[in-house]
Amino acid sequence: MKLNIVGLHYRENDMKKCIAIVLFMMIQACSTTDNWKRVMILGSAEANDPILAQVQLLEKNGEVKDVTVLESFPVQIWLTASDETIDRLQNMPRKTVSDQ
């Protein structure tokens, strides 16, 4: 009889963990990333590209995802982000090749 009680206790803990995981997944699925889109942002023609540095910071903070940097000059940065974040990145001042 004691084994059944212990076994039941373990099943209850497993069920609680399962419910917690399902709730977490549901919250993630309903997050604000639903309105995100994938775009290409052109970097700056500088040795230490401030656009790329900002994208890396935003990626660390979870404000952009799926970042792909193409080796070109200036770099082409493909990313997924909200319209607001994309607008901020596109409006950052940048140097062009002709400014060099």
What is the structural class?
alpha+beta
The rough form would be described as elongated
Helix content: 40-55%
- Strands of the widest sheet, in order across it, are 1-3-2
By DSSP, the count of extended strands is 3
Query: Helix-strand pattern, N to C?
Result: HEHEEH
Mean pLDDT: 84
Counted by DSSP, the helix tally is 3
What is the radius of gyration? Answer: 23 Å
Indicate the proportion of strand residues: 15-25%
What is the rounded distance between the termini?
A: 82 Å
Question: How would a crystallographer describe the biggest sheet?
Answer: 3 strands, antiparallel
Low-confidence stretches: none
State the main characteristics.
single chain; 100 residues; alpha+beta; three-stranded antiparallel sheet; 3 helices; elongated
